[in-house]
Design brief:
The structure is a homodimer. Chain A is α/β, with parallel strands linked by helices. Helices cover about 35% and strands about 20% of the residues of chain A. Chain A is built from 14 helices and 20 strands. The first copy, chain A, is elongated, with a radius of gyration of 26 Å. At the A-B interface, α1, α2, α4, α7 and α8 of A face α1, α2, α4, α7 and α8 of B.
Amino acid sequence: MPVLRVAIAQINSKVGDILGNAQKIASFIEKSKDFGADLVIFPEFSVTGSPAYDLFTCKSFVKEAEKGIEYLLPHTNGIVAVIPSVRLFGDSLFNSAYIISKGGVLKSYEKRRIKRLTHLDETRYFHPGDRPCVVSVGGVQLEILMGEEFTDYEKRKDTPLILVLDSSIYRVGEIDKKREALKKSFPDLHFCYVNLVGGQDEWIFYGGSFVGYGERILSEAKTFEEDLIFFDFELRGEVSLFEEKVSKKDYEKPIVPLRGSPPKDVLEEEILKALILATKDYAHKNGFQTACLGISGGIDSALTAYIASRALGSQNVTGLFMPSRYTAKESYEDAKQLARNLQIELLEVPIDGLIESYFNLLKGILVEELREVTVENIQARIRANLLMAFSNNKGALVLTTSNKSELATGYFTLYGDSAGGFAVLKDVPKTLIYRLCEYVNKKEGRFIIPKRVLEKEPSAELKFNQKDTDELPPYHVLDSLIEEYIEGKMGGLEVENKPLLETVKETLMRFFKNEYKRRQAPCGPTISLRSLGRDSDFPITNLWRYREWSL
Amino acid sequence: MPVLRVAIAQINSKVGDILGNAQKIASFIEKSKDFGADLVIFPEFSVTGSPAYDLFTCKSFVKEAEKGIEYLLPHTNGIVAVIPSVRLFGDSLFNSAYIISKGGVLKSYEKRRIKRLTHLDETRYFHPGDRPCVVSVGGVQLEILMGEEFTDYEKRKDTPLILVLDSSIYRVGEIDKKREALKKSFPDLHFCYVNLVGGQDEWIFYGGSFVGYGERILSEAKTFEEDLIFFDFELRGEVSLFEEKVSKKDYEKPIVPLRGSPPKDVLEEEILKALILATKDYAHKNGFQTACLGISGGIDSALTAYIASRALGSQNVTGLFMPSRYTAKESYEDAKQLARNLQIELLEVPIDGLIESYFNLLKGILVEELREVTVENIQARIRANLLMAFSNNKGALVLTTSNKSELATGYFTLYGDSAGGFAVLKDVPKTLIYRLCEYVNKKEGRFIIPKRVLEKEPSAELKFNQKDTDELPPYHVLDSLIEEYIEGKMGGLEVENKPLLETVKETLMRFFKNEYKRRQAPCGPTISLRSLGRDSDFPITNLWRYREWSL
């Protein structure tokens, strides 16, 4: 019986690197041909990378994207390739999928449902297409859909296979949600879903491509890494009805085990994978092989260092321990222990001398005493200057260690601990950092994050006996408020409990007052349903303080 | 003959300060009543301030805005007030204008044309209304329009007066453009146009409210400041047709002179007013009475200091002169001269000692020599730390001095000269800075910006004999490329001249490569058609380099 072999190429494109992306696509096409595929499909925006934002408004960029397709044409003898890119008709730009074969463009599909997505406002750049696209490959009628167009798909007679080309970003819970939605949309149809993979600034494309038929998942690709999977459809009769057949070991790649019910800890594992991919791609795509970060002996820098060492290799990560008079002896021990455990380099740079020099200079121009906040911030900014100098000299990416709880409340020093290229934990609240560290230790089977780091009370160590709780509510309270009031719908303050109401108000006031700091913070990967980066948009100048109407 | 006296209240609302805005509105209503007005109209978003962005998603904020209208009701005996705010119907939020009188809401108008504006994406927050709104005041039928709804207005019988409530932002050329569009839309109708005024983060509402009839401007308010103007419409007959009559000196405020053809230098004057208002409002609305900035002896800090002294008062501005071994003697003289001219305080903080301390510390952890970029950035970041410490201790706003040419090319030190709360010249290219300084000197009738500052070659003074042109094209070339390729449509590189083509490519590569710096830069006022802040959206990770297709 004749067979249609489909290759699903889950690739990691780079934004703007049209030549590199085209070369990568070509190599995936060649590999698909080597394994006898009749059809190979690629994720949305494979040629341009995503999200390219205002690059789509650069004519020369769009022209080059068209050259990218030309470059691929010679690779398509003996195979049909479905390759998403952009296409210009007159002055109108479309989010298109090119169907190419035998050295020519058979046709292209222009995405019809142009949406305002959080990570890419398509309506800002693209015109919507106006017609569906059905292609015949090896006697089988295939229909192409892009993005979320599948959600209200109406089954066509004689079109038994649907291709869904997507560029869907990770958020906690999103993988399963998307999968369920696809299953529901095609209760009695075969479909191949291919999703982009890779980190791009604040977004993580998670991959997770798969072949399905209604509730059944027939084959699936990995999440958070590139993959190429094959699937054979066996054709029955002339009207293209068919049954699937998982192809045998006639190509090297084994069918990956199906996901089934997620294992315990899947959330932590998933989030870690997401953060590691985001960090790796931010570094590598921006030309950094190495990274550096301040290691304080605290939990945030410990987790950041762990993620960095897994993303870039331990030998490529350098920690700077920059103690002052306020640094506890335990912090040094914990920092050293962590570096040993992770096998990363740890350099020590004591900053008390510099602190004194700043104090003396400032005494020359100030009549009053230095305020506490001044003294604290000077220290954090000295550390930033040292880290940035190290970065400038070594070409190492500075990773920042601020977490979401700090970002939300402004509990960090601008140009101090927030200074750097990539904020790995920007969307990770403190309580989740604890959970992730515990998971890491469990997974590694040892205290790779030292036990005391998990147990001691969090402190910025910018003055003696400082504790985060001097200024902030306990993190389990704070994080639940952030989730409810900042990530959530920002509803009214219907809080019965009076003292809690005060805490809520204070937290929201801190949140609003510190927008200026967040605006100048580096980007970091999004994992939640509402990050404090591009998911939110608050004015800096903002006198809204949830004050009581007092008239 | 009966007269309808209309008051046009061009107010400066503060985002989020609903109580304060309501109190201000109340005082303008009272003043209008004192002068016998029958009707007083306010600009779009008067109650909430604009743009409030995601505050519109906070239920408690929206509720409070409704209380703002309640607060105003008792003030409306004997007058009709048209007050824009937001209004919730069920779960749907509208951009509304309340028509209130005699202590009650007569009706409200829900804006129908909800648009994606650059400074506020209304479609993100508001539902469109579905019906027009005509109100009868003193026997005259008035129709209310908001924003750009006037552009395709179709004249109604028996509705001889149109009220246009707007919140329109400044950009070079925008004031006249809006005025011409209004005139064209109402060729044979009376209209009152009221626009918001004030600075809000990166936006400047310019005011410029006026009363018109076709081509004729009958009365106009000031630009860039609050104003209250009155206009009398004399009613003829019963069908509400009428002729205008400029009201006499029966209220204290004189009719301001009509603009007519703009005086020479109006562009420079307009831009300066815009920047001064933006700086003043950013400072004051955020609770700063004083500001500080680094004074280098160069032209950028000179203009910034001038604007700051005019925005906040000379006595409220402190300059820090922070020389190093690379600072020329002339720079110190020029800095001192500038401070004397502006009557601002100048403090001297030499930083050579600190530089040495950093070098020594870094030698302890680096085997290689310090690179040039490292040495340069350390200096800029020391200055940032000192300025921020001064700010922290004094509660003074740090103004940054980077200009648009530097922002576009990344010719600044992140966490160094870009560190601060407000970037006054963020949207002002270097060549325009020269023009503005020359205009300032002409206007003041003396070299308030010292002559040598205008004449010497620009230098960052981070190494010996450094000139900006070591790295950048001459500014007149650079600025024209920025205008054409970055502010403009980013077209293809159709450049005949080969060496120029190289310069264009290098400039664009610098632009793309430095997005990470711009993302962490503070906000600053928008004056051009395309700022490098919210008007643009480029990815940080971006491998697009205008490279030749080399295959």
